[in-house]
Amino acid sequence: MHITKLLPLPLLMLGLNTPLYAEHISLPTISVEGSAGEETPYALPLPAITSPDTGELLKRLPGANINRNGPLTSIAQYRGLFGDRVNVLIDGMRINPAGPNTMDSPLSYIPASRLEEISLYRGIAPVSTGMETIGGTIVANSKKPAFGDGDEMEFHGNANAGYNENGNSYQSSVLAGITNKNHKFHITGSIESGDDLEFPDGEILPSEHERDTFGAGYAFQNGQQSVSLQAEHHDTGETGTPALPMDIIYARGENYSGQFKNKFTNGGELSANLSYQDADHRMANYVLRTPPSPMMRRHAITDVETLGIGMAYNFSSWTVGFDTDQSEHNADIFSPDNTMFYVDNYNDIERDRYGIFGEKIFTVNDWKIETGVRYSRIEMDAGTVDSSMSMMPNMMGANVRTLRNNFNNADREQNENLFDIVLNGSFPLSSQLDIITGLARKERAPSYQERYLWLPLESTGGLADGNNYIGDVSLDPETAYQAELGLDWHTPKAAFSPRVFYHHIDDYIQGTPSTNAAANMLSAMMGNPDPLQFTNVDAKLYGIDANWLVALTNQWQLDGTVSYVRGERRDTSDNLYRIAPLTARTMLSYIKTEWSVGVEAVTVASQDDVSSENSESKTSGYAFFNLLGSYQATQGLTLSAGVNNVFDREYQDHLGGYNRIKDNPDIAQGERLPGLGRSAYVSANFNW
Question: Helices 517-525 & 395-409, crossing angle to 10 degrees?
Fold first, then answer.
């Protein structure tokens, strides 16, 4: 398996004698296993936390990007696939957003200040990483104390604080733990707040944010068994999402998880995990933005509850296991000015998943091969729906009644049987060069939004294209045939790891012009005359991504990534929506034992291959530069400072949504949201 990791904590020079190994790519260091004693180029410490959003760190990995709908609402994208197609795990737990527009995206559940590492299974994710991994698997882990070395209890922890002048934002986090060689207990928390963000020509309204988190955990180990328990509370307060119809008023809840491992005398290991999530979310279109007319003021209350269980047994080169999670979603829309108004947007939605899998790793004539097979069953159902609009004695009421009755009379219970097959391989062409290959067949069932959105609304998992959508209960699963070919070249002073990939996807779920007469008439009455309907189409994605590094001298280092993906419809001449343009990051750094400085260039090409059916706008290319530096004041204290977008370059991120605010004098309604202007920041990180 190929795992790319990004470590968000500053790491000073590690020395030149780090072993290299071929299957693990650490950014900014690149390592290749199996060549012990080779020298690895120095690694520049990662920049300080300049944004509360963990998604900003994900963007530094090859092939990865984010769809941004607000300061905390980033949706992971990998090689052009995003949303529910990407399997995001937070501390090993799959997070289900409580909001049907993914305002509380999985990455929003772990603040950047509390992040220990974020990892990407580069290329084709193994079947053991989860169900429905058609778009890969991303793992984000929070900071935790390590076990001690002896019987006596030790006190360890981390404190982080930072300030960014763009948006007048601050963040702080604390981790405190008591540990010895068998036990460890920790408590942790974070506080963040910021005002509206700025771009060269004004402000992005609304883009303020608030978020608090608190967690506690206990772990035990004795050499054969290990047990860990963790509880997390998150509370996102009033936070703007200017690309969506409403803003976050709150998104709060708890996550609980437990893991158990037992090592047997025969060398086998049994692992088990249990998780539970309970989250509530409220949003509104009249609190953080200028309220619309009283007739159009809306707020929504949504929730999710999820229970997950998994077990795996690893022996020799075999891994077998099962996993399951059961989730229930609700979403209701109300009006603050009319207590009689309501819409059952999603009612008693059930999406239950059950999976079994097996993996084997073996060697044939120097080929290291990983094979995997997974069967998953997805069971979905929905309760009956209604709306006060159905009682209106006019054409609008008649259309709502038609849509309601058609949905309630449909066979809403839908079951899917999914099969994944993975074959990954690596072969050493020489001591410095490996060839990487991958083939897979992967499937994903429709999301609950794609299947059960019964009224033409923008409740679409965060597509943020301004279109009304309607679902289709009878959607088929997506089936992807994936191929990858790449190289890992590594020397004591340089490394280069390119990958070429191709995804051939049947029954890809995409919005297409609606043919539902009642939905079309109703949407037109609501001001959106051309609604889309989730439909199965045929698609393909292909491209190349790479990371590279070269040590110019013992102090000077050059490293970077480049990512390109092209997404097309195979059944028409249209393009897929919200596909990242060609992007490159290049860092030149100078590193000494106690301090380092660097300059980073971010270059993005224009994106002309846009989706006409989504009314997607083209974007121009741009480049901006970041300056960063760090100083290790003491053994535990690291000070960092920098300036992002040094020359205050104005640009539009193609993966940003469109402005929904009609009275922002700096951004026209319907225009793509701009990227951030110049941002100076300082931070301090202390370990003890």
Answer: 140
